[in-house]
Task: structure prediction
Amino acid sequence: MSLDRVKMSLDRVKMSLDRVKTNLDRVKMNLDRVKMNLDRVKMSLDRVKMNLDRVKMNLDQVRLAWRLLPSVMAVVARCMFSFPWRLGALVVNGPLEPSHPRAFMVFALLAQSGASAYTCGSSTG
Result:
């Protein structure tokens, strides 16, 4: 009888060890999932960082444009009141129209550099 009890105890130990092994396999799978999720979070944070860098660059451009706005408006006003038909030719021999997305920055650069000879006062264009 005692041998049967030992055998039954060993069977219970074996079953317990099988459950432990199964649980360890589950833990390993869960840790793998956690690792994958952490990798996804890291990639998302990298994208957020890149987007924040873009926002910073855009804010820098807005700050520059805001600082140059009075000069730009003076050049545009001078051109509009002096030569309204030449507003599209602020840049000599250039295809830039006032509605072009980069026109504002070109006007700003012209105003900043004091390039009045290349704006409305020029006889070419």
About this structure: The CA atoms of residues 34 and 40 lie 10 Å apart. Residues 2-118 form one domain. The longest helix spans residues 2-82.
